[in-house]
Structure formats: C-alpha cells, structure tokens
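Attaching the record inline, Q. Sequence:
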Amino acid sequence: MKYVTTNEWKHFGFLEAYISDIQKVGGCFQLILDNVKIAPENSKNRDIREMRANALCFRIQDAELLSLTEEGYKVYNADGQLKNQYEDREIPQECWNDKLKSFTDGECCLYALEKTEEVYTLIIDASDGHTYILRVSGTRDTEEWDRFLQP
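Structure, as predicted:
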C-alpha cells in the first residue's frame, strides 16, 4: 500500500463506505472498504479538499470482538399505526463469523465508525434491510490505501 496512517480514523468519512471484506486474523480486525472519504486534515492528503479512496484497508490492532447486535426497529401500517416493534437482538457469538461474511456481499455499507476509549463501534447497514452494531476493542488503528480518487 502506498499511503499508511495510524490512529487517524477521525480524518476519514466512512458514511456509505461499501464493505468488500471483513475478517479477524490473529489479533487484527480488518475491513476492506470502497468509497471512503479522506478529509483535508488527513496527514497524507496534500489537497485542500476532501478526496476519496477505494480498497482502503482499515485495521484494528490487538482486536477483540465484543458484541454484534441487530438493531431493533418498528413496523407501521399505511395509516401510520404501529403494527410491530422489534427490540435490539444480540447475535450469539457462534454466529458472528457467518454474519460478518454476509456483510461482504457488495451491498453492505458502513453508516458510522466511532471510537470511545479503546472500543470501536461500527454501524453497518446490511443488505438484509437491517442495521447491525459491531463493537471491537483494540489498541490502535491503521489505514492503508494505494491512491487518491476525485470526490
């Protein structure tokens, strides 16, 4: 990879970044993302405007998957009356790998990526019409990509 940053996750825009690959390898959690925005404040961005990258590798070092939650939702009828309400549902740990693989179908994207203390929270809009919240602990993040693209 041509460009590498460390702990600069705030200088990227992950909204609507498509997930090409997602996996945990050893002590590292890795996502390959397309359509990532690179802020002008990013240390590698020499342009004064927001740029973009495809095939960006976002890694969390010393990673441990903490939880995977399917976000609850409400269903209304055509008159705006509440028909059903579904609460948040924790995905069992033995199902995490299969669920993570399902996010790589080319239609899933990140809604947000946030960090509090040492916990990264990824909100994923999945192709099954549901939203998932993935929490991963880690000591640092690195971002790698080959080239800048026009916004």
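The chain has a mean pLDDT of 94. The helical segments are 96-102.

More tomorrow.
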